[in-house]
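Complex 257.
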Amino acid sequence: MTGSATFIPRVALVTGTTSGIGEAVVRHFSELGHQVLAVDFDSAGAEVAERVGASFFEADLTDGEACKAAVAEAIRRFGRVDILVNNAGIQHVAPIEEFPEAKWRQIIDLMLTAPFLLTQSAWPSMRENGWGRVINIASVHAQVASPGKSAYISAKHGMIGLTKTAALEGGAQGITANAICPAYVKTPLVDNQIADQAKLHGMEEQEVIEQIMLKNAAVKRLIEPGEVAELVAYLASNSAGAVTGSSWNIDLGWTAQ
Ligand code: NAD
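Predicted structure with nicotinamide-adenine-dinucleotide bound:
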């Protein structure tokens, strides 16, 4: 048997951990018994990590040197990196004609270049140990587009290409790479969008959720961050050793149509 249900504690580096999906992943990993370095540019992440027994490293991941420093710090503190979860992300909504170039660059730097540099930096440690897991938090917007989100959608589509390439290069080295593609998850990133859209359309927030966010959903509810964290934990486990290069939709049925 190559797949094993036996739990093995690992060293995980998770990005974007002060709230939302990243926070849920750090909590779930810590509860399982993994050693976690939580990385975020928001210093409030230190307390969030400490609460669940994880370590924290402050880094603005739009800076390439900070990405490399985050991996170096995980290796300094724990001796290796086994699991990398690329999760940090932001959103900016504007039509292409009006999309600020600086915002485009910030989103691509954070959501495509940082995952590349973090993967590149963690790779030697994973290769030396003959075991590694790269888990990229993409989005339903890595599969389909919506107007107004050009940078986010381009970064997320790019992340699928990075995932597939890492899977091919890592296969012989015991390293897997997979992407998770959620629809709307109940996090601060979405709370802000609900408030903005309610103002924009003169709607109640509940109407925004039902008529805009869940328009394409078969299951009519928002996703809980913990549901994404459970999938991350599976992909990070020994049992998922044969799963690589794939995109896991957790999208309420959005892309089934
Ligand atoms: P969130 O806003 O709750 O969390 C994002 C985290 O990223 C925060 O902790 C923030 O401080 C951190 N961050 C932002 N800029 C950073 C930077 N420059 N350097 C380091 N850290 C930075 O959002 P979330 O909803 O939990 O999103 C997490 C990921 O999930 C994102 O990549 C997002 O695109 C993806 N996602 C979210 C949803 C959703 O509906 N919430 C759906 C699909 C995909």
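Strands lie at 11-15, 35-40, 55-58, 83-86, 132-137, 175-182, 247-250.
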